[in-house]
Design a protein that fits this description.
- The complex is a heterodimer.
- Chain A is α+β, with helices and mostly antiparallel strands.
- Helices cover 31% and strands 29% of the residues of chain A.
- The longest helix of chain A has 30 residues.
- Chain A is elongated and about 75 Å long.
- By secondary structure, chain B is of the alpha+beta class.
- Helices cover 62% and strands 12% of the residues of chain B.
- Chain B is built from 20 helices and 10 strands.
- In chain B, a hairpin with a 4-residue loop joins strand 6 and strand 7.
- The longest helix of chain B is centred in the middle third of the chain and has 33 residues.
- The relative contact order of chain B is 0.08.
- The C terminus of chain B is likely disordered.
- Classes of the chains: A alpha+beta, B alpha+beta.
- The interface between A and B is large, with 41 and 51 residues.
- Strand 1 of chain A pairs antiparallel with strand 1 of chain B.
Chain lengths: 149, 662
């Protein structure tokens, strides 16, 4: 191989790897990114079943129902609208009625219950999921510092 | 009074840092020995002042002086002393103090051990280090002062966040910061070299030990953090691709690349411009990580407080240092001479491949971490990029690297023989595949792809062994000679073999856990039993308990195998009195490399409780491999050549520059 060919091989190899990586990133973004919704958004513009989304809001007061075994049902609300959520597993330590929560999962076909794979209530009692806090402030449902403490 | 002295020492430190930042740099320019000589004592004084200041803060925490706001917010008089101490860095202000302490420690170390450096280079390096100290001292004094007093002093503190009250968290931040901040030395060396406008193999030899030391600490720190999250958060996961984790992982990837490219530069005087750029980028990623974690743009356990002025301040530091260094690079890099030539198939070629893959993989992690932030700022859309994204991109991109690693050390410098390397490795590859099949069979199935993953991990381990085997010439020469050759191998050879094998062990653990893990969530009443991973768990019952600053409900399980009880394991729900917050203490039983993980959920009305149990096969390998990597780094660091070979800067480069090889 001449010097020029060597250089070309190295540069060509490098570039094709980078291009492959870029394509991979774009593909992965189209596949696995979850958009964040509040119950009000879903009331205006429903999301089709099977799409991975994040649903955030406050856990509705008095809405937590323990089903058989380890299944729990609760409502996620933003003050105006509410969505029923079903989750199987252990709820985080900081999961409480009236507290902020973010759930990730999908709607099942032909059912208006949101099936969550993950429930995040993060690890600080002062913590309010940022996405929830921002929206509550924006929508005027924010109860000042009390809501986050 | 002591607190005020600490505060005063910090202000003095700022003054000292400004002097060290300015005078030696001017001195190096004018070749004024007296001005350059300020750098060493100045850096030592800076470290002593910061250390004193940090000491007073620690003292305030240990004696629970609640008149200091920082202590009041993050401590409690009933906390065990070890957590009072770790509480110093378990909050925003204190963790920035730790950052600064470690930064000035590294400056002091360079001042102490950098005796063999040329005067101008040392003066410039210490000056650049001092610039970073100046920036962070301003940041602490203006926006995050830990010495603020409260009047009247409260009687009792608000307690430290319960999940941070853990021995793992006492060790994890200092280790992580030693790595994170340690890369500042590489950055300073790179900037100093750019200021001087000369760079050669000797430069790489000086930088490599610092890179290695930082890398060792970062490796151990990340592993420690991962293990902490695993047992403390009670979710059974060991890596969440959380932005904060990514923030520490990106410098690690770039630092690993730097470690390897500096090798090429040291041995072959090639890849010089790239290595300098990489040194700048690695520390830039550390700074970016600090920004992400400390500015409050992310919310997580690490984001202690979100004060917008802090975010803007760190962003400014970020822009000045990264922008400044990159501008300097753009200005000076064309003047640096490029190094030696090599064929694509060669040791250099393999290391270039390593760098290519590591930096591209690091880039995907960066995109995945920053994209949601960028999108939210630009369009107000809120998205989350989770593990599936990273597994798909990062995971796939790393596969070629795993396969290529064993080939690297087998190839000769300049012009390698791929066929020869293949011949030496096919036994290792075959063995790896057979062993993977055996493992797969023992684990009773799972996805067939797992065999390939296991084989990749084993190939790394066997490949590392094969490297040492062939270097010693075992089988080719007499046993006696082979032993002498083996024991005569440089320590760096053992170091890199161990680190590569460690990577294999980690891969093995990751593949095994993600494919063979089994999990069971169920409602258990005292007296009931369940089976998992070949073990049977009998729930003995719940018992209340009392700790120094918490109350708990502890559930105990008797674990038996084949009817014989082997151990008991207990998991607890703790309520921390001061903050009225709950944590779950997971119960973990280790069997060989595998673990049984028990975590309690909510109690039902009839005395039953939700229990989540995982069988995590070979999970210990994940962290064990990281420990091996760090050990390999330490062995390599102890190599004589790194210490003794460093002093002389050769008059002329090894080989005249001909054309850029990058």
């Amino acid at each position: 191989m001449t010097r020029k060919q060597k250089r070309l091989a190295v540069i060509g190899g490098g570039m094709s790897f980078i291009i492959a990586a870029v394509l991979l990133v774009m593909f992965a973004f189209s596949q696995s990114v979850a958009y964040f919704y509040m119950p009000g958004d879903l009331a205006k513009k429903p999301v089709g079943p099977g799409t991975l989304i994040r649903l955030g809001g406050l856990v509705g007061e008095g809405s937590v129902v323990r089903g058989e075994g380890t299944t729990v049902q609760f409502a996620v609300t933003d003050g105006a609208d509410a969505i029923k959520v079903r989750y199987t597993g252990i709820l985080p330590d900081l999961f409480r009625e009236g507290q902020g929560v973010v759930t990730e999962g999908r709607f099942e076909p032909g059912d208006d219950v949101f099936v969550a794979d993950t429930v995040l209530a993060k690890h600080d009692e002062r913590y309010m999921p940022k996405q929830v806090a921002d929206r509550l402030k924006k929508d005027g449902v924010w109860k000042g510092e009390e809501a986050s403490k | 009074m002591i607190i005020e002295l600490g505060h005063y020492a910090l202000v003095l430190a700022l003054a000292t840092a400004i002097i060290v930042a300015v005078l030696p740099m001017l001195g190096a320019r004018r070749l004024d020995q007296a001005m350059m000589d300020v750098a060493r004592p100045g850096s030592l004084a800076l470290f002593l002042l910061v250390a004193f200041s940090f000491g007073t803060l620690t003292y305030a925490h240990v004696v629970s002086d609640f008149s200091v706001a920082n202590v009041w917010e993050n401590s409690h008089s009933m906390m065990p002393t070890v957590f009072k101490v770790s509480g110093v860095w378990g909050n925003h202000e204190g963790s920035m103090m730790l950052w600064l302490l470690i930064l000035s420690l590294f400056s002091a170390l360079v001042a102490l051990f950098g005796r063999n450096l040329p005067d101008t280079l040392r003066a410039n390096v210490l000056a650049v280090q001092a610039w970073i100290s100046v920036a962070f001292l301003f940041f602490i004094l203006l926006t995050s002062n830990p010495f603020t007093r409260l009047y009247p002093a409260p009687a009792e503190g608000k307690d430290l966040n319960p999940v941070l009250q853990d021995i793992g968290l006492a060790i994890h931040p200092p280790l992580l910061y030693l790595g994170y901040v340690g890369f500042s030395v590489c950055f300073s060396f790179a900037v100093a070299a750019l200021i001087e406008g000369r760079i050669d193999a000797a430069w790489a030899r000086w930088v490599r030990p610092w890179t290695l030391a930082a890398w060792i600490c970062l490796t151990a720190g990340i592993a420690m953090g991962s293990y902490w999250a695993y047992y403390e958060l009670g979710w059974g996961g060991w890596w969440f691709w959380d932005p904060v984790e990514n923030a520490s992982f990106m410098p690690w990837l770039a630092g690993t690349a730097l470690l390897h490219s500096a090798l090429v530069m040291e041995k072959r005087d090639a890849l010089k411009i790239w290595t300098v750029l990489l040194a700048i980028l690695t520390f830039s990623l550390s700074l970016l990580g600090t920004f992400l974690v400390r500015s409050g743009v992310l919310t997580s356990v690490h984001a202690f407080a979100s004060d917008p002025t802090r975010g803007v301040f760190i962003l400014c530091i970020l822009l000045i240092f990264i922008g400044g260094a990159l501008s300097l690079f753009a200005l000076r890099a064309p003047r640096l001479t490029a190094g030696g030539l090599f064929a694509p198939i060669s040791r250099e070629g393999a290391l270039v491949l390593n760098n290519l893959i590591l930096t591209v993989a690091c880039g995907t992690v960066l995109i995945g971490t920053l994209y949601p932030l960028a999108l939210e700022t630009l369009t107000d859309d809120k998205i989350s990029v989770g593990p599936p994204f990273f597994n798909m991109t990062f995971g796939l991109l790393m596969i070629p690297l795993l396969v290529a690693v064993p080939f690297g050390p087998m190839l000769a410098w300049k012009r390698g023989d791929l066929l020869g390397a293949l011949q030496r490795l096919y036994v290792a590859a075959g063995l790896a595949f057979v062993a993977a099949l055996v493992l797969f069979y023992l684990q009773h199935g799972g996805p067939v792809m797992a065999v390939l993953g296991l084989a990749a991990g084993l190939f790394l381990i066997f490949g590392a062994a094969a490297d040492l085997w062939f270097r010693a010439g075992i089988g080719k020469v007499s046993a006696d000679l082979a032993w002498r050759r083996f024991s005569g191998l440089p320590r760096s050879a053992f170091g890199s073999a161990l680190a590569h094998a460690g990577l294999g062990v980690t891969v093995l653990g990751i593949v095994a856990v993600s494919t063979f893990e089994t999990e069971n969530i169920l409602d258990m009443k005292p007296g009931s039993s369940t089976e998992l991973g070949g073990y049977s768990l009998h729930f003995d019952g719940m018992k209340p308990g009392l700790g120094p600053n918490f109350t708990e409900d502890r559930g105990t399980f008797t674990v038996s195998r084949g009817g014989v009880s082997v151990a008991t394991v207990s998991s607890a729900k703790r309520i921390f009195t001061a903050r009225k917050s709950a944590t779950t203490e997971a119960g973990i039983l280790t069997f060989g490399f595998s673990q049984l993980y028990v975590s309690l959920g909510d109690a039902g009305k009839d005395g039953s409780i939700v229990v989540r149990i995982w069988w995590k096969p070979m999970i210990v390998c994940i962290w064990g491999g990281a420990v091996l990597m760090a050990l390999g780094g330490m062995i390599s660091l102890s190599d004589r050549r790194l210490r003794v070979g460093a002093p002389s800067r050769r008059a002329k480069p090894l080989r005249a520059a001909m054309e850029p090889a990058e």
